[in-house]
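I am going through a labmate's work and have reached the protein record below. What it holds is a sequence and that sequence's fold in token form. Please read both lines and tell me whether the tokens look consistent with the sequence. Do not assume that whoever made the record got everything right. Thanks in advance; the entry in question is below.
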Amino acid sequence: MNMKKFLLLTVVLAFLASCGSGDRGQLVGVKGKKWHPEKPYGMELIPGGAFIMGKSDDDLAGIQDAPTKTVTVRSFYMDATEITNSEYRQFVNWVRDSTIRTKLAILADEVGATPGDGGIGEFAFKDADPENMNAYEKYMYDNYSGMGETGYEGRKLNHDVDIIFDTAEYPDEYYVEVMDTMYLPIEESYNGQRTWDVSKFKFQYSYMDIEKAAKVSNKGKRRSEFIITEAVEVYPDTTAWIRDFAYSYNEPMHNDYFWHDAYGDYPVVGVSWKQAKAFCEWRTLYHNAYRKSKKQHYVNKYRLPSEAEWEYAARGGLQGATFPWGGPYAINDRGCFMANFKPLRGDYAADQALYTVEAKSYEPNDYNLYNMAGNVSEWVSASYDPNSYEYVSTINPSVNDINNQRKVVRGGSWKDVAYYLQVSSRDFEYADSARSYIGFRTVQDYMGTDVTANAN
């Protein structure tokens, strides 16, 4: 009898709950938090569509690894310019400052210093409350900084106090001790300057190998088996300016190019594929931390473009074009060069540039993207396989073999001949290599499918 009363009560409560929900008992779906679409700063929307990928002329050598193939890509946002030195320095400085704060907090804990004590105590850990942390804090909670396990995971850093960089204002000897570890030893300094030990600037992040997890043979395995953790040194390899050119004087570029504000709007170079990928992870984290503070949905992750996305965007909606501006020549009808490359058998100055130029130089293509040909070659997410066009999907094609360290670069650079500026030309470099002529730009998936470039 009691069981019957219980069942009756359950039915009544369910009926009342349905009546009180306002859906009149109909299937109306679950309404979540309102989505506020946002065009990322500095990006352009590339409307999805189909195009003929690969060489469109009688280039018998080129078609060996780039035969024509009709493919379709979905809509996405892409940086209007290559990532600049200034933008990449924001990443480097964030990693540096976060590493310093972690070291200060650990030492403060070890010596028992608290905010009330002043000095290093001002940087002591705060009590952690994971439920109220934003994305930025949660990453620090997981010890993002690339220092490895410290035993202090789960402790919240104090960001309310500014880091002091002026040696004359260091608050106590403990602060001096921490800052001293961030610089190269005195015996490695010259010209009266101590420089940062950039090997300490590491960014640690985790991601899931979804392609591997999706394989039928891995069905039923735990998610943790497919999570990969990477710790990457983020500072560009400025020695690339010397190493890339034998018997050539490029020391000014090595000394000044990355850090000096005179080059702030120039594309960052000396960045490996792995560093470019780490930058994408950080940019996602940084953006979502702000959106979390505004109680907004997280955005899709920033990432490197696929090879098909890059070529589709570079073409700017022009089918069968040789260059982003059409072609078939690298000069316009007034005899002016359309990009920064190596013209006229090595007359670098003929295109009004010796090395790189500012990221927003020359005319953009019809998608308002600058320097999709020339200036610096650009990393894409794909692994290089000369036969990949033969077997990739015709929708959102992508080849990224984790075991293939040859990564595709596109677009040609300031030191390349015109052939490599063609939108269909393919080249590659190894993922851990950094060059004075390779940079990158990022993309972000567009939420929705209602934007297409060639819909009927």
Observations:
- The mean pLDDT is 88.
- Residues 170 and 176 are 6 Å apart (CA to CA).
- Residues 86-233 form one domain.
- The longest strand covers residues 202-208.
